[in-house]
Amino acid sequence: MAHPSQLGFQDAASPVMEELLHFHDHTLMIVFLISTLVLYIIVAMVTTKLTNKFILDSQEIEIIWTLLPAMILILIALPSLRILYLMDEINDPHLTIKAMGHQWYWSYEYTDYEDLGFDSYMVPTQDLTPGQFRLLETDHRMVIPVDSPIRVLVSADDVLHSWAVPSLGIKMDAVPGRLNQTAFITSRPGVFYGQCSEICGANHSFMPIVVEAVPLEHFENWSSLMLEDA
Amino acid sequence: MRKSSAVTKIAVQADSPKLNYKEKDRGCTAMAGEEAAGQNKGFKLLGILDVQRTPCAREAILHGAGGSVAAGMLYFLATSRVRRSFDVGFAGFMLTTLGSWFYCRINNAKLRVQQRVIQEGMRNKVIYEGTVLDPTNKPNADAPPGPP
C-alpha cells in the first residue's frame, strides 16, 4: 500500500508494473531535461542585453526545433507501445477469477474446479485491529498463488465500478452486462491493496480490494478450507 | 450480501494457520508504524525527479554536473567568453546526463534480463532435476534406452 504523503508509484509486485516503473523513470528523466533546458533559456533571455529587431527566420534553429522534439517523441513512444502490447498478452492463465462489483463491495468467484465464491466487505474503522490499514482492509481477501498467471474477469452487478490494484499495475472497469478481462502474475508473495476507481455512489471510497499472493500449497489449503466450510 | 445455491458466503477463521502466512510476508506492505520510521523523503530535482529512489538518476546528474563544469571551464579558458561558456557548460550537462543515463539504464536492463534467465533456470532446475528433461544430464551410452 502507499505510505503517508506518498506521491510516486508503489513498489511493483508484477512484471508489468516493473516495466511501467522503468518506463516512468525513463520518461521522467526526459521531462526533467526538457524542463531544465526551458528554464535555462528563460534565464538567458531575461538576462541578455542583446536585441535583434530584424530577425525574420533562421533555417538552422527551425530544423533543430523540429527534429529534436520528433526524436524525443519517438524515444518515448517506442517503449510505451512495447509495454502497451505487453499488457495485452494473455499467457495461458492457471486460474480464472471473476470479480463482481456491487454497491458497495466486491465479490469473487473461483469456479474453475469447484464453486467457490465470497463477498469482500471493507472492515469498518471501529473494527480494525492494531496494525490494520484504515479504509483498505477487507473481511475476505482475494487469495491467489504466487508466480502463476491469473486471469480476472471484471464485471458489475449494478453501476460502474473499477477494479484497481496499483502495485500490480491493474485497473479494469467493471461495467454491468460486460465482462472485461485482465491478467497478471505476482512476482512475490504479499498483500496488495487497491480501491474502487469509478464513482459508484455514497460508499465508493469504502469498497477496497485486497489481493493476497501466497505459495501454491497455501493457496490449495486455503481453497480446501473455504470449500469445506461451504 | 449475495447468496445462491451454488455459491455460499464463507466465514474464515482469523487464526487459521494457513492464513498466518500473510502476517509474516507482507511483501510491499508493512505495519503502519514501521513505514513511518523507515521512510525518508527523497530529494527531488525541480520537484519532479527523485534522485535518491530513481535508479541511475543520481549517477547521471552527478556525471552531468561534472561534465558541465569541465566543458564550461575548458571553453572559458580557451576563449574567455563568460556567457558562451555558460551555454557550453549547459550543453555539456545535457549531453553528459543523457549519455550517463542511457548507459546506466541499458546496463540495468541487461542485468534484469540476466536475472530473469537465472530465476527461470533455477525454477526449471528444481522441477526437472533428476528427470530426462534435466539439461545437466549427460546421455550415458551404457544406459538402456528410454521408453518409446
TrEMBL record, chain A:
GO terms for biological process: ATP synthesis coupled electron transport. It is found in: Mitochondrion inner membrane. PROSITE patterns: COX2, COX2_CUA, COX2_TM. Residues 92-225 form the Cytochrome oxidase subunit II copper A binding domain. The chain crosses the membrane at residues 27-51, 63-85. Binds a copper A center. GO terms for cellular component: mitochondrial inner membrane. Its main location: mitochondrion. InterPro entries: CcO_II, CcO_II-like_C, CcO_II_C, Copper_CuA, Cupredoxin, Cyt_c_oxidase_su2, Cyt_c_oxidase_su2_TM_dom, Cyt_c_oxidase_su2_TM_sf. It catalyses: 4 Fe(II)-[cytochrome c] + O2 + 8 H(+)(in) = 4 Fe(III)-[cytochrome c] + 2 H2O + 4 H(+)(out). GO terms for molecular function: copper ion binding; cytochrome-c oxidase activity; oxidoreductase activity. The keyword Amino-acid biosynthesis does not apply. It is a multi-pass membrane protein. The keyword Coiled coil does not apply. Its cofactor is Cu cation. Residues 1-91 form the Cytochrome oxidase subunit II transmembrane region profile domain. Keywords: Copper, Electron transport, Magnesium, Membrane, Metal-binding, Mitochondrion, Mitochondrion inner membrane, Respiratory chain, Translocase, Transmembrane, Transmembrane helix, Transport. SUPFAM superfamilies: Cupredoxins (SSF49503), Cytochrome c oxidase subunit II-like, transmembrane region (SSF81464). Component of the cytochrome c oxidase, the last enzyme in the mitochondrial electron transport chain which drives oxidative phosphorylation. The respiratory chain contains 3 multisubunit complexes succinate dehydrogenase (complex II, CII), ubiquinol-cytochrome c oxidoreductase (cytochrome b-c1 complex, complex III, CIII) and cytochrome c oxidase (complex IV, CIV), that cooperate to transfer electrons derived from NADH and succinate to molecular oxygen, creating an electrochemical gradient over the inner membrane that drives transmembrane transport and the ATP synthase. Belongs to the cytochrome c oxidase subunit 2 family. This is Cytochrome c oxidase subunit 2. It comes from Fundulus heteroclitus (Killifish). The gene is COII.
Automatic annotation (TrEMBL), chain B:
One of its GO terms (cellular component) is mitochondrial inner membrane. The chain crosses the membrane at residues 60-78, 90-106. Keywords: Membrane, Mitochondrion, Mitochondrion inner membrane, Transmembrane, Transmembrane helix. The keyword Transmembrane applies. The keyword Iron does not apply. One of its GO terms (biological process) is mitochondrial respiratory chain complex IV assembly. It is found in: Mitochondrion inner membrane. Its main location: mitochondrion. InterPro entries: Cox20. Pfam families: Cox20 (PF12597). Belongs to the COX20 family. This is Cytochrome c oxidase assembly protein COX20, mitochondrial. It comes from Fundulus heteroclitus.
